Amino acid sequence: MDLGLEGRQAFVSGSTRGIGYAVARRLLVEGAAVTVNGRSRAGVDDAVRRLRAEVPGARVDGLAADFADPDPVEALLDSLGPVDILVNNVGIFGLEEFAAVPDDLWRTYFEVNVMSAVRLSRRLIGPMLERGWGRVVFVNSESGVNVPADMVPYGATKAASLAVANGLAKLTRGTAVTVNTVLGGPTWSDGVAAAVEHVAGQSGVPVEAMRETIAAGNPTSLLGRFIEPDEIASLVGYLASPLASATNGAALRADGGALTGIL
């Protein structure tokens, strides 16, 4: 299916690996030009090299910025040209004992998981409205709806991000600019893989066996396995396209059935 993205310019935050990398690749395959982002210049350059190898003829470049620090983000925004498609993907997560989480770590969660999207959207939505077309997609998590007890900072900031997206969509009323959210489920990203490998090593269990055990242990999952980054990227690609013109202000699930509500 042709998503009609030829000639569009996209920026994907946190896109040197995992879901963000898969989203960048999907947009490139569909003909968009993509600027990828990561914390280090080396990581960004490596991602650009890999994407050019995987998608011949890809128009891809990269900008380095750590979204935990506002100053590099402002410099990144000053370097960006016009953006038609903004994918707010960057985020951090971790298992945290609520009582042991200090204020500084809470602030870091908010800087990366909430303020990254605020700063990018604040700068880029206005020009989209002026040009008459644009797409903003928030890559979120089912944990923002059903907050895990051992991931309260992550879940709370994802809930805040969901609220930001909902409010931003209302600013686009009557235009061809849309703002939507993808609620992903447990996904086999690099960060999750590293965590599972760590647990498997401590338990003396093969990584693949631990992966299957953890996936099977989710009592509400209908998928019964980890989601692959490309599966999230497919929905993001659709929402970034002209085909999704009637979808605005929505939170669409790619959670493998982990959420138990109808919507």
Describe the secondary-structure layout:
Elements lengths: L8 E4 L5 H12 L3 E6 L2 H14 L5 E5 L5 H10 L5 E4 L14 H29 L2 E8 L10 H19 L6 E8 L5 H14 L3 H10 L12 H11 L11 E4 L9
Parallel strand pairs: 1-2, 1-4, 2-3, 4-5, 5-6, 6-7
Number of E-state strands: 7
Question: CATH superfamily assignment of the largest domain?
Answer: NAD(P)-binding Rossmann-like Domain
Q: Pairing-aware structural class of the strands and helices?
A: alpha/beta
Strand content: 5-15%
H/E series, N to C? EHEHEHEHEHEHHHE
Which value, in Å, is the CA radius of gyration? Answer: 18 Å
Spatial strand arrangement across the major sheet: 3-2-1-4-5-6-7
Taken together, the total number of domains comes to 2
Low-confidence stretches: none
Class of the largest domain in CATH?
Alpha Beta
Helix content: 40-55%
CATH architecture of the largest domain: 3-Layer(aba) Sandwich
Q: Distance between termini?
A: 26 Å
- Count helical runs: 8
**What's the CATH topology name of the largest domain?**
Rossmann fold
Main sheet?
7 strands, parallel
Shape: globular
Give your account of this protein's structure.
- The protein is built from 8 helices and 7 strands; from the N terminus they run βαβαβαβαβαβαααβ.
- The protein is of the alpha/beta class and 263 residues long.
- It folds into 2 domains: 204 residues, Rossmann fold (3-Layer(aba) Sandwich); 39 residues.
- It has a 7-stranded parallel sheet, sandwiched between helices.
- α4 packs parallel to α5.
- The radius of gyration is 18 Å and the shape is globular.
- The model has no long low-confidence stretch (mean pLDDT 94).
